[in-house]
Design a protein that fits this description.
By secondary structure, the chain is of the alpha/beta class. The protein is 22% helix and 22% strand.
Amino acid sequence: MVGIQWLLLATIIPCVLTFATGLVNVSQGPEALAARKYFYVGGHYVNDGTGMHVMKDQMPKQALIGSTPRMGAKAGLHGSWNEDTLYTCSISRNEADQPTFLVTVRWQRPLTHAMARGQMGDPVFDAFYASQVQFQNETATVQTTNQRAVVALLDIIGPSIIITHSQGGPIGFLIADSRPQLVKALVSFEPQGPPFQDRVVTSSTAIVRPYGLTNIPITYSPPVRNPATDLRREINPPARPDQSDCVLQASPAKQLPNLATIPQLVVTTEASYHAAYDYCTVNYLRQAGVTVDFLDLPKAGVFGNAHLLFLERNNLDIAAMIESWIQRKI
């Protein structure tokens, strides 16, 4: 394990943060830090139209370095609307709140670990909602700029474990594709999906991720030059009535060779909208030759979580499961 960093790659034009424990602890005391460092990666100069130049697409990094290193550094990519504070700061408990925060209406699954009612005026919800910000809505731009910036980060810090969430998911795949020798494991918490389409969220059959997992090119074998014709698709029916059908590759499936050698884990909760389709992402990866484990939390006996599981009361129980998986794989 010596020399391996842990990266928790965070955001929509995200901030990448290196920290010690991976998931937020809602009950822990003050952090004990040996050092705090800041730096930037990526970025390039563009003409501002007046003959002068400005820098764009740079990514700030904050490194919190503990006095007793554990497994190196984690880097995580969080999803849209969020700031990295959701991953680095605690939210206080409100024991009187009813557990109905961020309930998904469509599947009516119980949410039992939330800390707020999800209404204006609730102090915990207000603290959460203050973290929701505007974001770049052009997904290809988000993926391109973040892929470049995090690859630049890995070139500086070396071998790393990548943890992604939501919109950060495809960026994690792209980073692993670009630097497979530097990504020692990839953990995807409810990655943006399902393959090709946003059918569950928008009820649309439009192809929004032409490269299956991503909007921009990723390495396939045989190569994909025109995804509209080179990635042949077929619809696979769901195994359960509460699941979405899956758009996968038609046989023979093209492979993802740069992802195939990296240990991967996809994590899905019970009460999230992702519960209906994350299995499609897992099946797509496996079809493309990637060895990936699927931690479906309710099947593992963990019930009542939703999409922001790292903010919920049992987050450390889930974190321990992820830590255990990484220990076995690295």
